[in-house]
Amino acid sequence: MDYLAIAVALVVVTASSVAIHLLARARRTQPGNLPPGSLGLPVIGQSLGLLRAMRGDGGSRWIQDRIDRYGPVSKLSLFGKPTVLLAGPAANKFLFFSGALSTRQPRSVQRILGEKSILDLHGADHRRVRGALLEFLRPDMLKAYVGRIDGEVRRHLEENWAGRATVTVLPLMKRLTFDIISALLFGLERGAVRDALAGDFVRMIEGMWAVPVNLPFTAFSRSLKASGRARRVLQGITREKKKASQAEEEQGNGKASRNSDLITCLLGLTDGHGERLLTDEEIVDNAMVALIAGHDTSSILMTFMVRHLANDDATLAAMVQEHEEIAKNKGDGEALTWEDLSKMKFTWRVAQETLRVVPPIFGNFRRALEDTEFDGYLIPKGWQVFWTANVTHMDASIFHEPAKFDPSRFETENQRASAAAPPCSFVAFGGGPRICPGIEFSRIETLVTMHHLVRQFRWKLCCKEDTFVRNPMPSPLLGLPVKIEHRASS
């Protein structure tokens, strides 16, 4: 009987403890505190619905439908994790500046890009890695890259555009930006290794926003395999450059070539005690992120600029005039300079308006480091927080006639434009301390390429169907085939 009484007492105590814990937990996360919405089915949640909408050019509508139904704060489940969707300038400000949120990516992205990338680090580690990347992107170094990028663009247009009646824009722009990034970031010469790496990066990106199920027939599985191959190539490049740097330092020549490419630059950075600032793993993970950022975002931006200019004669004419004025002061074959780029103000406004209408990055994730609140709703520790650029970019209360393509929105002297774009509304490059560190690099790529393109060629769209899909980045139907002809005056 004594044993029975003890057993009963233990059961009662245990049950009471569990009940108290569950009640306390329920009180902390009672539905009244959580945002409205449903988490859907386990693991899958709303992931398939969002991905299906994005692949039919309906991602923005899908997000807006949720906002119309639940308001600017709602809960759902994306890529296997409970998620809070936030929308609007105030939400963007909270996302960009709150210390309660980190940028930890979904596990699918993490496994493809690595856990030591700038996308996943926070606090001191994020500041250390970001500072290292910005060392390579210093203004004095960016100025030196203009001539090298100019050479890559001229070579690309001569090899892939000149003498042709039709071209498909998106794959060519991807190849151009890949060649630029490979040369400047990795010091990787043209050849079989560069060609294989280009294909693997395309496959990597296709699986980044996929349901994280690692089965042979899934996009996620194909992406993981491509990531592994790309990582091995970059590890090999890092080892080779480390040996080359050590050999140069022994000969007293190390400093001369330390900034010749991103990997060499990162290998050469040291702290106050002479210790390397970044590990090999951090260098490889961030080289992969830098390649995706510099390769895909710029190529998509330029592709959609070509797409829009095909149907906007007035904007194209203004761009051509701007670039012809710059060319008047250049000698035959003379490369563009940093000073030339500073005169391309209208072209960059066209680029910004293209980014507003079709942002390359649909949205991004944060992770709650602790229980936090926004707009009266609880965001539990460990939950994802998701935001999208289109919510504010296409908001008529922020941008007048948002469906209209109007580069004058970005004239700094235009009072209407400044009033129409409050902080944290135009977020094509993110915002806050984590704003994309490669903005200026992307600007150089875009301006140099468009300078030579609009001066050398005219083009017309081959397809009347003017739609695009996202996977997860936007892609015009069939890659944007165009008919081209050479301008006689260039």
Automatic annotation (TrEMBL):
Binding site for heme: C436
InterPro entries attached to this UniProt entry: Cyt_P450, Cyt_P450_CS, Cyt_P450_E_grp-I, Cyt_P450_sf
GO molecular function, one term: iron ion binding
Annotated metabolic or biological route of this protein: Hormone biosynthesis; Plant hormone biosynthesis
Keyword list, A-Z: Heme, Iron, Membrane, Metal-binding, Monooxygenase, Oxidoreductase, Transmembrane, Transmembrane helix
Gene3D superfamilies cross-referenced by the UniProt entry: Cytochrome P450
UniProt cofactor(s): heme
Protein's UniProt keywords contain Ribonucleoprotein: no
UniProt similarity note: Belongs to the cytochrome P450 family.
Protein name: Cytochrome P450
Species this protein is from: Triticum aestivum
